[in-house]
Design goal:
Immunoglobulin-like; five-stranded antiparallel β-sheet; 15 helices; 19% helix; Glycogen_debranch_GlgX; GH13_cat_dom; Glycogen debranching enzyme GlgX; Glyco_hydro_b
Length: 683
């Protein structure tokens, strides 16, 4: 027989106690909240227990005896008045927003909707189609973390399933799972490349939107969160959430960090016509942003139907509590915040000193984590690249677009290209930040792969079922002479060389480099630049034996070894003319300093520059020639050795005669020369 008492309201969620389990949930405008307990099958409700109201709107109850593994949900009584933003409906079983685990699968049905039609309360009970929250209590993560400084961080953005699902050397049981990322075969691959940090696409429990499931598709990327504390269950082998901790411990042991892509801008509950699953049924008007004069209208700065209201103290607490849980208990090293501008927007617009930003800076746990912002959204004033405060890093889409445009042979790009490869001081230096605040990337999960960037000039998204209207129209891409797959050896070789050009630019730019998974063996999505709903071979990496010996894999290894050797890439400040240690010289094809007219010559499609470290006696000379004709370049004198040494080139037939100062730089190629005082290797 179960006994219940008032319990404690200060720790939200379910908490195991000596004699039972304490439950606490926030629902300030409810007239009554009930804890509903279910049998082990999750099908039968075995108890419905009144919870006790505390000041501030939190409800709690302590149930004895009750053990870890108990299944539960909440039902809430209160006003049903959509016009005032209140959607209480006792017929809807709600998941615990703080639930650390759940049992069962989510199934779409009309029973999830609070109103049928809008304005009319639904009497249908949804419990049969809802996962049940599950009492669980993991111990805190105690393993040693790598703690790579940003100056030595190299990010590999990947999808948990797609990264290993087709990997023949990964344990078949672990493929496409968290434990697959901890498999020796996958670890060996990323370590061999030189990767320090995995950035995982969303791993919070998520569901596929109903408009996708009706078309036989599913949300593959995961940007449709159901719960902020529970790992996505299909990524588990034995349905045990501790597997995530096991993955973290194994990766940390070999020196690999993990950053999570987190979605705190919206949830799977969508807008007024969406389902009622958790937050909407507990405190709709507090957890979500609405028009002040129309509480029934959701502000949709995400394009997904709703926007979390981080201005609300309890919503802010929910986000911070989730972040701390993933660091302290699950062991992660940092976060990439999807549509991060939304998290710092008030009714007056974006605010770099928003309570969310300040709270993280003051939090003793979170201010030590790696923090990356995607600094844009579709709301008013939504583009905020460079506006976040230290220690935040930001995805630099201007870097992406500028590099793409240069290698596409767009005119007038040189001045901006120089800024981007030098760390984008025009974007970050104004608020005392440095080049390492820029996350440099050319491709990511969103858009073309690197192989598709040089293979398609038009998007090919018909498989998404939106008549090719979804995805970006301007990708700054080119197809090297033929749209799509080609067996023409000339086109194949040019595409490989252009991918190498992009990688030289990326990995030898100041900033923190990020590589999208599959770049190292020319993974293609068939021209789909919005493959969010393709849970198939479009996204799954094709791990053929030949892929692991792909020339791009070796090329990335060479580049990252070179990057590690030269101190300038670990230097956290911009290099200016008065720097006593570092210098940057922008050169013309005659080895002389560029003139003002050189910078603005629209026909100039090449860039030469040298970087020197006077203290360590190191120098790099980098030449990018995007033109479709060869460039006769006179190399300047090598500063720390008798001659420049050719370190690498995107051109397989690259030759350099050190006795001749004039070097023929092949069309559409990149060249890197080094000059080192003997023995001066930085690492």
């Amino acid at each position: 027989m179960l006994n219940s008492c008032r319990g404690c309201h200060t720790q939200l969620g379910s908490t195991k106690k000596d004699t039972g389990v304490n439950f606490a949930v926030f629902s300030p405008n409810a007239t009554q909240v009930y804890l509903c307990l279910f049998d082990a099958s999750g099908h039968s409700q075995i108890a419905m227990i009144d919870m006790f109201l505390h000041e501030g709107g939190t409800w709690s109850v302590l149930v004895e005896p009750l053990k870890e593994g108990a299944l539960y949900g909440y039902r809430v009584e209160g006003d049903y008045d959509p016009q005032s933003g209140r959607l209480f409906n006792i017929n809807k079983l709600l998941m615990d927003p703080y639930g650390r685990d759940f049992f069962g699968e989510f199934t779409w049905s009309e029973r999830h909707f609070c109103h049928m039609p809008v304005g009319t309360i639904s009497k249908l009970d949804n419990a049969i189609d809802m996962p049940k929250s599950k009492v669980t209590g993991l111990a805190k993560y105690t393993e040693k973390r790598p703690n790579h400084p940003w100056s030595k961080t190299v990010i590999y953005e990947c999808h948990v399933k797609g990264a290993t699902y087709k990997h023949p050397d990964v344990n078949p049981e672990f493929r496409g799972k968290f434990l697959g990322l901890a498999d020796p075969a996958f670890i060996s691959h990323i370590k061999k490349l030189g990767i320090t940090t995995l950035e995982l696409l969303p791993v919070h429990a998520f569901v596929s939107e109903q408009f996708l499931t009706t078309k036989g598709l599913r949300n593959y990327w995961g940007y449709n969160t159901l719960n902020f504390f529970t790992p996505h269950k299909p990524y588990l082998v034995d349905n045990d959430v501790s597997e995530f901790q096991r993955m973290m411990a194994t990766l940390h042991e070999v020196g690999v960090e993990v950053i999570l892509d987190v979605v705190f801008n919206h949830t799977a509950e969508a807008g007024i016509d969406g389902p009622t699953l958790s937050l909407k049924g507990l405190n709709n008007s507090g957890y979500y942003r609405h028009l002040p004069e129309e509480p029934n209208v959701y502000i949709n700065d995400t394009g997904c139907g709703n926007t979390l209201n981080i201005d609300d103290p309890k919503t802010l607490q929910l986000v911070l509590d989730s972040l701390r849980y993933w660091v302290e208990v699950m062991g992660v090293d940092g976060f990439r915040f999807d549509l991060a501008t939304i998290l710092a927007r008030t009714s007056y617009g974006f605010n770099a000193h928003h309570a969310f930003i300040i709270a993280i800076l003051q939090d003793p746990v979170l201010n030590k984590a790696k923090l990356i912002a995607e600094p844009w959204d579709i709301g008013p004033g939504g583009y905020q690249l460079g506006a976040f405060l230290s220690p935040w890093r930001e995805w630099n889409d201007k870097y992406r677009d500028t590099v793409r445009r240069f290698w596409r042979q767009d005119e007038g790009v040189l001045p901006e290209l120089a800024k981007r490869v030098h760390g984008s001081n025009d974007i970050f230096e104004h608020n005392q930040r440095g080049p390492l605040n820029s996350i440099n990337f050319i491709t990511s999960h969103d858009g073309y792969t690197l192989a598709d960037w040089v293979s398609y000039e038009n998007k090919h998204n018909l498989a998404n079922g939106e008549v090719n209207r979804d995805g970006h129209d301007e990708n700054y891409s080119f197809n090297c002479g033929k749209e799509g797959f080609s067996t023409d050896i000339g086109i194949v070789n040019l595409r490989l060389k252009m991918q190498k050009n992009a990688l030289v630019t990326l990995l030898l730019s100041k900033g923190v480099p990020m590589i999208a998974a599959g770049t190292e063996f020319s993974h293609s999505q068939g021209g789909n630049n919005n493959a969010y709903c393709q849970d198939n071979r479009t996204n799954w990496l094709a791990w053929k034996p030949s892929q692991q010996d792909h020339p791009l894999s070796y090329f990335i290894q060479e580049l990252l070894t070179l990057r590690k050797t030269f101190s300038v890439f670990q230097h956290g400040f911009y290099v200016h003319s008065d720097d006593s240690r570092f210098s940057v010289c922008w050169l013309d094809e005659n080895g002389q300093l560029m003139s003002e007219s050189d910078w603005h010559s629209e026909g100039r499609k090449w860039l030469l520059y040298s970087i020197q470290d006077q203290q360590l006696k190191q120098a790099l000379l980098i030449i990018f020639n995007a033109h479709d004709v060869n460039l006769e370049a006179t190399l300047p004198c090598a500063p720390f050795s008798e001659h420049w040494q050719l370190a690498l080139s995107s051109c397989d037939c690259a030759k350099y005669d050190s006795a001749n100062p004039i070097c023929t730089i092949s069309a559409q190629s990149s060249w890197v020369f080094t000059s080192l005082k003997e023995g001066n290797i930085h690492g």
